Amino acid sequence: MSTDLHTLSGAYAVDALSAEEAQAFDTHLEECQACRDEVRELQEAAAMMGASEARAAPPALKARVLAAADQLPQLPPKVTSLDAAPSRRWTARVLSAAAAVVLVVAAGFAVSQNRPDQPSITASTATVFAAQDAHTKTVKTDRGSLTVATSPSLGRMAVQTDGLQKLPTSRAYQMWTIHAGTATSAGLIENLKAGKVMSMPSAGTTVAITVEPAGGSTEPTSKPIVTVDPEQV
User: Fold this and answer.
1) Domain Putative zinc-finger: where (predicted)?
2) In the prediction, which pLDDT does 77 show?
3) 89 and 175 share a domain?
């Protein structure tokens, strides 16, 4: 990946990176204070917009916006000296935040800032945890702990998974919805720090997580490490 990692802070702040890019940027954040500050500020700005408008965009809009953004050249960040006028630094931050907010709205993300007790989750996961009607529950498993949040008003369920053990590259965590004894894949958890967001399951449906071969399975091949009834969260 040849992309200048400094240019990915806006996309990272709204959880719009691929799993490979997010992993590379996570490593970059450990060494770059400037990017950590920028990501925090962008998430705060995006949270303000997300809190004011919870309406979802048309399903096809996100794909169109991301496809158009992919055609635009990424310019390297312009470095401003620390002795620059405060007004110039503030203007630069506001413009960067505004760019992130536009991406949030256009792509249909309802974004919220990370809570202090949830420092690792990304914006789309934080939205559910930060909802006014959110219910949360922390569950311990033999692979570590995770926290589940449900929000009836958003119609979404989120799982914070950064407490789970990292698996070898040959294995992956996979989520399932189980209804009337039938398990349906809800996708892989590709980034433990990002967590997972899904639509609120229908009544009588439980959600489970299993450890599967890399790439996932068509049906569970191992005993779930956890099973949660969203109605009991």
Assistant:
1) 6-36
2) 58
3) no
